[in-house]
Amino acid sequence: MLIEYQLPLTSKRADVILAGRDRRTGADSYLIVELKQWSQAERYEEDADLVLVSGMGERPKLHPVVQVRGYCEYLADFVGALDQHRNAVRGVAYLHNASDLDIHDLYDQVEDERTRLFSKTRRGQFVDYLKAQFAPESGADAADRLLSSSIRPSKQLLKAAAGEIKNRDQFVLLAEQRLAFEMVMHAVEKARASNSKQVVIITGGPGSGKSVIALSLLGEVSNRGYTVLHATGSRSFTETMRRVVAKGSTRMKAMFKYFNNFMAVKPNDLDVLICDEAHRIRETSENRFTRAAQRTGRPQVDELINAARVPVFLLDEHQVVRPGEMGRVADITAYAQSLGLAVHQVDLDAQFRCGGSRKYEEWVLRLLGLDGEAPEVWKGDDHFAVSLTESPYELEAQLRARLAAGFSARITAGFCWPWSSPNGDDSLVADVRIGDWARPWNVKGDRAVGNAPASALWASAPGGFEQVGCVYTAQGFEYDWNGVIFGPDLVYRDGRLVTVRSASKDPALTRKGVSDEQADQLIRNTYKVLLTRGMMGTAVYSVDPETQEFLSGLVTM
User: Fold this and answer.
1) What is the dihedral of CA 169, 171, 177, 180, to 10 degrees?
2) What is the DSSP string of 16-84?
3) Backbone φ and ψ of 447, nearest 5°
4) DSSP codes of every residue in 473-513
5) For 259, what's the count of Cα atoms within 13 Å in the CB-facing half-sphere?
6) Mean local confidence (pLDDT), 539-554
7) Mean pLDDT across the stretch 179-184?
8) What range(s) does the AAA+ ATPase domain occupy (predicted)?
9) pLDDT for res 355
10) Helix (H, G, I), strand (E, B) or coil at 13
């Protein structure tokens, strides 16, 4: 009996897994049991997958049979020992406090013998069901085989992923993008043939095609039948990948993980681990929810390198915006070489997000003092528009007109205003205030608030324009037209732009362990991220009059 079994590469836990020998075949057999203390539940508005639970508010819960069915499918998809034995896993939802009459319409979701539902009324039937599943002998060996199995996506899941991604004709690779792709594929073939391991690092600025390469690799590696997963350190980015690429498929969503999901994997369980947005790698994967036994202080980069024969890191060093992020080329290279691993690096010098304008990205780097050169006047580019607005009203009006014309547009700002929780009436607080202009920040959590989309969907879902985005929701995304509000944390003084740490409301910068030098770099990187989200143009405005005057000398109104 495995209690609170953590599903591989996730934070989710199955209440109980019973391991034993199948009574009919003698093969290993596993039964996932989801325990619910509910005393009464009913179908939610004729939706077979959702239920309302008495005494637990008006928000629906996932049907327990749907939940345990998903656990079964996930386990079969990721535990190597079950790759060719999917039917060895079954599931049961046991509502031990509810009678049949209290949950009568929940039985409609019981579709076959592999996933069952029992109430306290059917306790005897549940016992009979268990006896029918398992032979009367120890299941210790079966449990050991489950616990010691390799963790990797199944061949069926890889085939599904390959089919989904390879059918997307927008994944066209050009020049250095193609070089990076081919270098990774060569490394994969070489590592498998020689039973070796090597690291690939792909660097590039915003829009240089890093994520297109990542998804192309995910599709091609899957298509060749090699084990591969995609991972990031960004909730917004990962959830959008799951929503857009997986298109609602629970199985496909499981291909997209987080960096902290690899704390307990065995060496080289995967052929390839694609670490997208690798500048978000943290010092360790530990957080306040990490169990004491897992608190080893092990570097997160070590966990990621350990997980695959060919770990691939795609990053932009100028997008490190949080204390503790250490996804830099030098850090990854030094760690890999300390392990005796060969490191291959490809720099993407094409620049596609900003309308193909490398000139604009270079202008931003000079403006923010990130490349050692002095700021210069924006001289224009046929592929990209830059403008300075006189007020937040003008900034919003300009972008709203773009939105009305059928383009995508968003407004972002430096983290210089408080970020309140929603009001009791399910509305957002207008925290970003500049004179009498006020707008709310994007939603904090993973649930929509009124017409405002969940945090992870702010950049892509309808309704996102009505909120101001922060760096943590904008990073990794792109839209046609971009508006950026410079807050009082970055101002022009004595001939240059300087950062004002005390003006920032970012909780990450209030930590005692963050030096002023680190805070300065993080604030500059934050504006670098914000300024490079647009594909067709960017409009800017500063709340500080002296900074606004400085910008007017660089950009025409």
Assistant:
1) -110
2) EEEEEEBTTT-SEEEEEEEEE--S-EEEETTEEEEEEETTS-SS-EE-HHHHHHHHHHHHHHHBGGGTT
3) -125, 135
4) HHTT--EEEEEEEE-TTEEEETTEEEE-GGG---GGGS-TT
5) 31
6) 96
7) 88
8) 196-341
9) 56
10) strand
Asked if 392 contacts 464 with a C-beta cutoff of 8 angstroms, the reply is: no
**Buried-state track 174-210, b at ≥16 Cβ within 10 A, e below 16:** eebbebbbebbbebbeebeeeeebbbbbbbbbbbbbb
The pLDDT of 433-454, averaged and rounded, is 92
Tokens of 377: 């006047």
Those residues whose C-beta lies under 8 Å from the C-beta of residue 111, and which sit 6 or more positions away, are: none
Taking each helix axis from N to C terminus, what angle separates 516-531 and 358-367, rounded to the nearest 10 degrees?
150
Buried b (16+ CB within 10 A) or exposed e, 75-94: bbbbbbbbbeeeebbbbbbb
> What is the Cα–Cα distance from 144 to 554, expressed in whole angstroms?
66
90: left (phi over 0), alpha (psi -120 to 50) or beta: beta
Residue 154 in tokens: 């199944």
In whole angstroms, what is the distance from residue 468 CA to residue 483 CA?
Answer: 9
Place of tokens 């606004």: 548
> What order of strands is seen across the sheet that includes strand 61-62?
41-44, 47-53, 61-62
Beta bridge mates, 482:
410, 538
Is 351 a residue whose pLDDT tops 60?
A: no
Q: Phi and psi at residue 546, in whole multiples of 5°? A: -65, -35
Closest CA to 486 of 557, 415, 435: 415
* DSSP structure class, residue 209: S
Tell me, what's the pLDDT at 353? 45
